[in-house]
Every structure is written in structure tokens, then in C-alpha cells.
Amino acid sequence: MLLALILALGGTMLLQRAFTPKLGLDLAGGTTVTLSPVTQNGKAPPEEILDRAVNIIRDRVNGTGISDAEVAKSGDNIIISIPGVGQSEAIKLVATTAELRFRQVLAMAATQVPQNLATNAPTPTASPSASATGSAKPSQSAGTPSASPTGKALSSALTAPTPSASASAQPSATQSAQGKKQDAKATPAASPTGSAGPPPAEDPNAGINTEGIDPAVLAQFNKLNCADPANRGQGVQDDPAKQYAACETDGSYKYVLDVAKVVGTDIDTATAGIQQGTTEWVVQLDFKSKGAGAWGDLTTQAYNSQEPRNKVAVVLDGVVITAPNIISPITGGRAEITGGFDQISSTNLADQLKYGALPLKFNRSSIDTVSSTLGQDQLEGGLIAGIIGLALVVLYCLFYYRGLGIVAVLSLVVASVITYTSVVVLGHNAGFRLSLPHIIGLVVSIGITADSFIVYFERIRDEMKEGRRSLRAAIEVAWVRARRTILIADAVMFIAAIVLYFLAVGGVAGFAFAMGLTTLIDVVVVFLFTKPFIAMLAKLKFFAKGHPLSGLDAERMSETGTAARTTTPQEA
């Protein structure tokens, strides 16, 4: 199993032709961008809004959480450090804002349409709904949640199907085209000119009401593949005065959206709570006086439209986060969004709406290219210190454990191979970039791995001294006792790494990630290499007979060199 793991990692490196790890900002250089917030009143932005902007930018530049990109506040400014990219690429990542748009849906389609969609299309009541507080009939309000999925992410709350007109028209258009192809093949000689033209191409807009849709946006909608995360427009600066083609956050649907009739600045506040008289979680919106009128006009227009134009999409950072049905015109400046939310999903959506309602625009104060010269010097010093420490560990193991020390050295070699290949594979598949904090975590792991060997070796010696057992019996009994200690120690270390990773950012999080990775590798090496290898060596006379160089000779097994200890296992 261990060999299979090493071969899998090595094979991945060969297939991707990736043999060196990607380096972080301090080792490979990159770009640092300083953003200064600009508010409408010219005052400093609220702290919570600035924190939200930091989180949005951090998610954008460091989506996997392990790419070593850093986003931090410095006073009212935000400083973004992105490893391995140039200035133009960095600007694209951080130039957008978190402004919110409300757009009427003009057309929509599922990214992956099931074959039986035409005959088994779900009813539109499965989608979230928006209503005026207290204005919807009880039957409508109670019916919508029951048809909606529960306990899912925000992007999954929308389960509205492709419009029924589109679903029914598409098969007929396909069948018609197929029928024409069959007729052309069956009667080629019937053409008076002797040549039949190609069958007409299938209309990609069959079943879609294209009235009022900009042809350029419609063409973009037809080409948009939301199954690819790179095409979902995350972080796109959408123009509120123009129509827009966008994806849902999970890529399940794509939309043609009208111009933004209501924007985030029109929202006064958004909160999550339980709908009165029910146990359903909902998101409640309160609009400002100007926004209330615009919201009433938008929802009235959507309510009087046919599916799917009876939906209003909430677009944040260029992505549709939800697109509820409008079940009644919403006037009065207050609305509710329902759709099978739980506490977490409703709170997250409320935060997105609330913080998107107070957008922050930024001026790029400075854009600097970071050199890796200082990091390279520190890397060389760190590697030298690591090599010296590793050499001392090896010498100590060989001097104190003699033959058993070879097992420790080989185990460290195996752990190093797995660690290196894992770092390379993660770098080319998950955005992992090796930085100085990561290297510190990897060096510290040498001690963690060595501790596991020492625990096991000492247990073997104790069993041989206490019970006068043979080496083979001592290995098995010692393993039962040692593995519990090893697992507990590694579990504590892994839990500490997880807590540190999620509570910290930047270099500290990188250190925690490296420490957690090497802790898992330590468990794999001890269980799949160290213990089986020692069991194999026990069959050799060199170890079984207690050769002086084996580390298990009688002299070393005795406290005085002439007599064995008489301590009972309970005392141990």
C-alpha cells in the first residue's frame, strides 16, 4: 500500500511533468497591491465592511487557502501580496468590488440538462420565492418551502428548472432536424439539381423568448459553460447599465439578466430569522426610501411576466447567489426570501446581502513587484540548519540504537520522499506554494517523526527486558502499546494544526498546513513502513540473536550489563 502511494504521487508528477514545488512570495517573488477605500461620504469605512472586503478579496486570490497569498489590513488600507504573478494579473484579481445588483432574469438554462427533462421537469415552485412581508397568502408561503431543498448551500437553494417552454420546444426542434436528415438520406435522387443542401442547424435559442435581449449578450449566454469554474465570472465587474450573462455560484444554471434596476446601496439592512408562525428560516430585506420604489417596480414587472422572467437574480461579485420567484408585487420597502434555508445558509445569504449593500470601491495606491532575493538567502540558511539538524538526528540514532538506527534513517528517507512528492503534486493541482513558514513546519516534522520511532524502539526494549520475550514476540506486544501512544501524540499535533490553520492567516496558516501534512505522513510511514520493516528484520539472526551492533544485545538490554530487570509490566 505504501509503494502504491509513492508510485501514485510519482506517476502524477511524471504525467504533469512537474518535478519541483511551486514557491511562495518570499522565495519566488510576486506582486504587492495596496488598495485605499473610497466611500460615498468621504469618511473612513466601517470596520465590519472593511473586514468583509478583506474576506472577499482573500477568497478571490487564495481560493484554496494554501497558495500563500496574503490579504491584510493596514489602517484603512488593504494590502494584497500575491506570489508568482505579474502586475497585470494581480490587478485583474483585486480590481473588482463587492457591489450588489438586483436584475430581472430574461432567460435561463440548466448547465447539464437531464435527458428526461421534457417529461419529468419539476415544477417552478421548487425555487426560492420572494414576497412582501405579510402580503403573501398563507397557502403560497407554506407551499414554497415544502418543495424546496433544505440543508444545502446558498447556491443550491435555487432549484428552478429550465423553463417548461424551453424544455418542450427543444426536443421537437431536435426531432424535426433529425427527420430532415433522414429524408435527405432516403431520397438523394429526388433533387432536381442532383445535390441536396445540408440539413438546417439546430437553433440554440429554441424555446427561449429572445424579445428585448441584446444579441451580443444572447450569443455570450449560448457560449457560456458554467460547468467550468473558470467561466463563472467570479470577481467580474458587471456594468449595472447593461444586460449580463452570468452563472450561479455552483454552476448549475446560467442566466441572461436585464439591467440592474436595484443595486446594493438601495438596501438598508438584511437579517436572517425564523418566519413568524413557522419553523422556516428566511432572509428579510429592508430597503431605503429610494430603493423601496425601485424594488416595487422591479418585482411588479417580474410578477406580471412569464417563467423565467418572473425571477429576480441577486448578483454579487459577478455571480448569481440566488434567483427567487416573485410570487407577488413587493411594495412598502420590505421583502422576504424563502427557499428551504437553514440557519447557516440564511445567515450567510443575509451577510452577503447586507455587506454587498454597502460596497467599497478602491483606488490602487501602489503596485510593487516583490523580489525574492531576501527569501532565497533565508531559504539557504534554513536548509543548512535543517541539514545539520537531520544529520545530528541520524548520528544519534546510529550511535544509540545501532542497527535499529538504520530503521529510523530509512523511515526518515521514506517520509522525505512522500513529503516532497506531496508538496509538488499539491503545488500543481491545489495552488500550494512552498514558503519559509511551510519549510519551518516541514523541518519541525523531523522531530515529530523521530519521536514516533523512539517510542516504538523503547517499547521493544522494555518488552525484552521485562518479560524475557523473544524479539519477534516483543515487536508485536510493543507495537500494541506503542501505536496507542503514537496515535494520541499525532492526533494532538494534528488537531493543533487544524485549529491554527483556521484561526490564522498568511505565514502562520502556512506553517500549520505543513505541520498537519507531515503529521499525517508520519502516521502513514510508521504504520506502513517502520513496523513491517522491523518485523522483517526480526527474522534475521543479526537481530534475533542480539548481535552487539544490533542495538538489542543482552548488554544493552540489562541495567547492569549482567542481570535483567525484574520490573513488572504494571510498573511500566
Q: Strand tally, please?
A: 14
Task: Please state the CA-atom Rg, rounded to the nearest Å.
Answer: 32 Å
> How many domains, in number, for the residues?
3
Share in helix: 40-55%
**CATH architectural grouping of the largest domain:** 2-Layer Sandwich
Seen as an oligomer or otherwise, the chain set is: single chain
Q: What topology emerges from the helices and strands here?
A:
Elements (H helix, E strand, L loop, with lengths): L1 H15 L8 H4 L1 E9 L8 H15 L8 E5 L2 E7 L3 H8 L5 E11 L6 H4 L8 E3 L6 H10 L16 H23 L28 H9 L20 E4 L5 E11 L3 E8 L6 E7 L1 H15 L8 E5 L2 E4 L2 E2 L7 E8 L1 H14 L4 E10 L2 H29 L1 H27 L6 H32 L3 H33 L2 H32 L3 H4 L9 H4 L15
Parallel strand pairs: 5-12
Antiparallel strand pairs: 1-3, 1-14, 2-3, 4-7, 4-10, 5-13, 6-7, 8-9, 9-13, 10-11
Helix pairs in contact: 1-12, 11-12, 11-13, 12-13, 12-15, 13-14, 13-15, 14-15
